[in-house]
Amino acid sequence: MAAGGLQIVPVVAKAELDRFIRVPMRLNAGDPNYIAPLIFERQESLTAKGNPFFQHAEVQFWLAVKDGRDVGRISAQIDHLNPQTAEGVGNFGLIAAEDDPEVFAALFRTAEDWLRARGCKSALGPVNLSTNEEVGLLVEGANQPPMFMTSHDARHTPGRIEGQGYARAKDLYAYVCSVADDLPAPILRRLSKGLPEGVVLRELDMGRFDAEVDTLTGILNDAWSGNWGFTPTTQAETKALAATLKLLIDKRLTWFAEIDGEPAGFMILLPNINEAIADLKGKLFPFGWAKLLWRLKVRGVKTGRVPLMGVKRKFAATLRGQLLPFQLIDATARAARRLGYERYELSWVLEDNLPMRRICDAGGAKVYKTYRLYEKALA
Question: How far is CA 243 from CA 57, 130, 328, 329, 365, in A?
Fold first, then answer.
């Protein structure tokens, strides 16, 4: 019990988790750019039954309740596969609360006490729940609706987090590309010469879906291994995500690159399901499934998101490897154009991931959103 009748309630039962999921839906109800995520997807993602992240992490959720109303929420988690954990770093996440300093103070005090009791020396977030899921708080670009599997935070939230003693740790960027625009002429001239000897580009083979997911996981863990805050994704996590997204994945928008017969890189563009569910308010029943499938398969969507892309580090410094990102982008963009897409987002890109930022800049992409990770010592 906090001051003024404010209660911080640990989430234990299914009913409490359902309330936890709905907090930001109520808080952002007046924001025309907010799009509620699908409730059933959130229920899977935030439970051990649906998310293999819980197999290697400790997680706790809390609700803030005042005068019988749910006025906020927060999570705290310790990922034992994250190298930063060995340095005493724990994470907070899923933060959403009314514009009330008392509520933010009580939520963060609870999460920090939980992390401190488990030996953490600092708190970093928001991380929702893994660094391989949603990361960062939206601090610029709230005038645009969120893409699929990205957060959209109330505008008062950054200031309230900073009011709890948190400072900027890292910024992450979301880039946007117009599908109608070709790659810059110098790059196209290089690509027009054809694929270098030993390089093969191919679409996803849906007939070997599980094996393709394994290949993607291997490339991803290798390509991202040098990034700040990187946590290796497990086979179980990748397969769970792939199973969830299988109905959305279009093989024409998922490309692999091979060099001398070895998997070397990949790029996946997902339809922006948020465009199709904007008016469903998180619910698929009784008619949501029909609406969703019709909008995706018949009407189609105009926007997409590239959540995953990478080239193995052994190839990244070679001439053939340096061309791969542009070859993958060109192949994906051409397919997207034929399918009626107009623009797509590449996110998230760390501020100090200079190689990826150069690729985005060279490809004509522009930063249009900024997400921020905050940190605080727990001494």
Answer: 21, 18, 23, 24, 30
CA distance linking residue 251 with residue 203, whole number of Å: 6
Same domain, 152 and 194: no
Strand 343-350 relative to strand 122-125, pairing: unpaired
* CA–CA separation, 191 and 183 (whole Å): 10
Same-domain status, 74 and 118? yes
Same structural domain, 350 and 219? yes
Q: What is the mean pLDDT of the chain?
A: 92
Whole-prediction pTM:
0.93
Name the H helices within the chain: 14-27, 39-45, 101-117, 157-162, 185-191, 209-223, 235-245, 273-277, 288-294, 313-316, 319-338, 354-362
The predicted-structure confidence for 109-158, as pLDDT tens digits, reads as follows 999 999 999 999 999 999 999 999 999 999 999 999 999 999 999 999 99
What pLDDT score does 214 carry?
A: 93
Predicted confidence at residue 38, as pLDDT, reads 86
As separate numbers, helices (DSSP H) first and strands (DSSP E) second, the chain gives 12, 15
Q: Is residue 219 part of a domain?
A: yes
CATH of the domain at 12: 3.40.630.30
Same domain? 72 vs 212: no
Q: Which of 24, 78, 17, 8 is nearest to 50 (CA)?
A: 17
pLDDT at 379: 80
Q: Which domain holds residue 320?
A: 177-372
Low-confidence ranges of the chain (pLDDT < 50): none
Quote helix, strand, coil % in the chain, to nearest 5.
40, 30, 35
Instruction: Give me the phi and psi of 163, to 5 degrees please.
Output: -65, -15
What is the predicted pLDDT for the residue at 283?
Answer: 77
Q: Are residues 233 and 167 located together in one domain of the fold?
A: no
